[in-house]
Design the sequence.
């Protein structure tokens, strides 16, 4: 069955929602145990990552370097904790390893390291660079005549970087319909709102003008994400960008939409409360 | 001396064409400038393996890293200033830290760029690239060495930065030349002082040794294309057994080849050194010969530097018996 024809059934959506809940729980537990990490920007990308890794992408956790795998790059490298929890849930490494996050000697660096962590394709964290690498992968796939797809997840604030737009132009030039970029549009960056920065708007129109198909969807909706991935597979001759409208800190009431929870330490009563809120009923 | 000259960038272009025939998964990522850096030959022969990204060097490096992930051998190529510093963080993250098999060529490296002035010259690229932990850095002296080094780089597994010049330039080597990765090689034996060269000023080093010989000074010449990893063993030998060094490079003396040699010398056996190169200043637009003169890079300046170093050597060690180095060239 080709990718665009895959049915999205209710049971599957339910299953993915359940995994997303477990991932949120892992994120909070790790934040509490380690006492450090980017909580907000990890919680906003949970559904995006879960749908990619548990449904959309063709990967083999037992063979991370499988030659015919799909490639994913977390260009917003500060979402590393969210990324690691999904990779471990998917079987790339044991869940207990999450609690070594950001500790000396750990394979789980504060930002992704391709040489250390199974499943990580390129080291990121210095913003604005991942999309170019995804473009290079997509070009390589086309040259080899393979059906592999190239995925890239960017932060909204990250797209203030000029390198992103260089990559966007080249993706259109090379007609990379095997490339799907997703922007985690949570409206906050670092400790502030996007509004204090030079404006990225009109956002969708910008990407369209750069030659992309743009889909604007609710970024925590499993079904909307899966549908958007289907749509992206259908278009020929141009890359697709999904603007995923998300909530920074999603799932923990006091973290949601609060810029200060970008990377603030989670401890004490707030940690207890966060754990209660992500508890699986 | 009367040197035969040959175009450095033509050698670059022709070697890339040659590599295209030899290595089927070698691709070139251009950021414009295909006529200047002569990747046009490769492009005409292998259009399907040529990626043109436009004037966007950061993107060039990222794309190269992505193509390396897909099993290609990408050569990212433009003027050294843009190939190295414009994309320095992309090189650090996507190539060096990620250890992708990308070959970066800094063309027009140094100051001899056809009267184009500072913006097209590059005197800090070695310093920037050398500070990256996984990077190999190689400078080239003439057309023969360019060809050998590019063949090596294409087959080496890991990130490499190669410096290449632009113009018609003295041909120092002949067809017997062999590139030995990470090794310097003696071009002339000498027991009083050694002139250590990396890159385009090699003919001046050889001429300087001649000038010194006329004054009864026995000056050796070593060519050391690999700046990183630097040939520590050979530098140790020279420091311990000869005791006087002049380094010669087409780069700022801060952070470049001379610095690399000095680091090894002071940590092992400190002896006097002088560094011929750009003395921490910007150059300007002028014919190459005028620039070489302005920056005190030509043979007479190298010879003068050598004599100053020799004086310091004798002042520091009036009684030491130097073993000298016996080698067969």
Sequence:
């Amino acid at each position: 069955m080709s990718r665009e024809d895959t049915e999205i059934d209710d049971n599957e959506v339910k299953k993915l929602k359940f995994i997303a809940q477990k991932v949120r729980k892992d994120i909070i537990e790790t934040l509490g145990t380690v006492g450090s990490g980017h909580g907000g920007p990890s919680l906003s990308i949970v559904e995006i990552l879960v749908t990619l890794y548990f449904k959309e992408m063709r990967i083999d956790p037992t063979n991370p370097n499988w030659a015919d795998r799909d490639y994913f790059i977390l260009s917003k490298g500060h979402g590393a904790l969210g990324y690691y929890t999904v990779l471990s849930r998917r079987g790339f490494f044991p869940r207990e390893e999450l609690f070594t996050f950001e500790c000396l000697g750990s394979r789980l660096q504060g930002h992704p390291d391709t040489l250390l962590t199974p499943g990580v394709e390129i080291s990121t964290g210095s913003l604005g660079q991942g999309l170019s690498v995804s473009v290079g992968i997509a070009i390589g796939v086309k040259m080899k005549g393979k059906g592999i797809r190239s995925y890239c997840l960017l932060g909204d604030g990250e797209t203030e970087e000029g390198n992103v737009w260089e990559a966007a132009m080249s993706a259109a030039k090379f007609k990379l319909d095997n490339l799907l970029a997703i922007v985690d549009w949570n409206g906050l960056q670092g400790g502030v709102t996007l509004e204090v920065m030079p404006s990225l708007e009109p956002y969708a129109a910008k990407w369209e003008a750069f030659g992309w198909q743009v889909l604007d969807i609710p970024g925590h909706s499993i079904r909307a994400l899966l549908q958007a991935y289907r749509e992206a597979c259908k278009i020929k001759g141009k890359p697709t960008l999904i603007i995923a409208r998300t909530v920074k800190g999603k799932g923990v009431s006091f973290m949601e939409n609060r810029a200060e929870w970008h990377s603030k330490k989670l401890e004490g009563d707030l940690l207890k409360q966060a754990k209660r809120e992500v508890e699986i009923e | 001396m009367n040197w035969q000259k040959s175009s450095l960038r033509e050698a670059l272009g022709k070697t890339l064409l040659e590599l295209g025939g030899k290595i089927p998964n070698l691709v070139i990522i251009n950021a414009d400038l295909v006529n200047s850096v002569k990747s046009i030959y490769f492009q005409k022969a292998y259009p399907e393996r040529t990626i043109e990204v436009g004037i966007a060097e950061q993107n060039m490096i990222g794309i190269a890293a992505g193509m390396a992930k897909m099993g290609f051998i990408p050569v990212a190529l433009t003027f050294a200033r843009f190939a190295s510093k414009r994309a320095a963080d992309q090189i650090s993250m996507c190539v060096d830290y990620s250890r992708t098999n990308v070959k970066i060529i800094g063309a027009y490296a140094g100051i001899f760029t056809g009267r184009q002035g500072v913006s097209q010259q590059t005197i800090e690229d070695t310093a920037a690239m050398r500070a990256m932990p996984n990077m190999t850095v190689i400078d080239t002296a003439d057309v023969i060495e360019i060809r050998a080094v590019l063949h090596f780089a294409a087959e080496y597994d890991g990130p490499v930065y190669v410096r290449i010049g632009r113009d018609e330039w003295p041909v120092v080597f002949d067809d017997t030349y062999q590139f030995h990765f990470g090794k310097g090689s003696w071009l002339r034996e000498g027991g009083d002082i050694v002139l250590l060269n990396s890159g385009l000023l090699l003919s001046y080093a050889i001429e300087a040794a001649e000038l010194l010989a006329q004054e009864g000074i026995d000056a050796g010449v070593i060519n050391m294309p690999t700046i990183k990893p630097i040939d520590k063993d050979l530098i140790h030998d020279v420091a311990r057994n000869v005791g006087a060094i002049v380094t010669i490079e087409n780069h700022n003396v801060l952070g470049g080849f001379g610095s690399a040699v000095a680091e090894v010398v002071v940590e092992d056996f400190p002896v006097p050194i002088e560094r011929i190169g750009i003395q921490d200043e910007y150059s300007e637009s002028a014919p190459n010969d005028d620039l070489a003169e302005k920056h005190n890079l030509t043979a007479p300046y190298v010879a003068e530097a050598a004599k100053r170093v020799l004086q310091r050597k004798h002042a520091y060690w009036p009684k030491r018996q130097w073993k000298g180095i016996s080698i067969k060239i």
Residues 61 and 90 of chain A are 7 Å apart (CA to CA). The mean pLDDT of chain A is 95. The beta strands of chain A are 71-74, 150-155, 179-185, 188-189, 192-193, 213-218, 240-245.
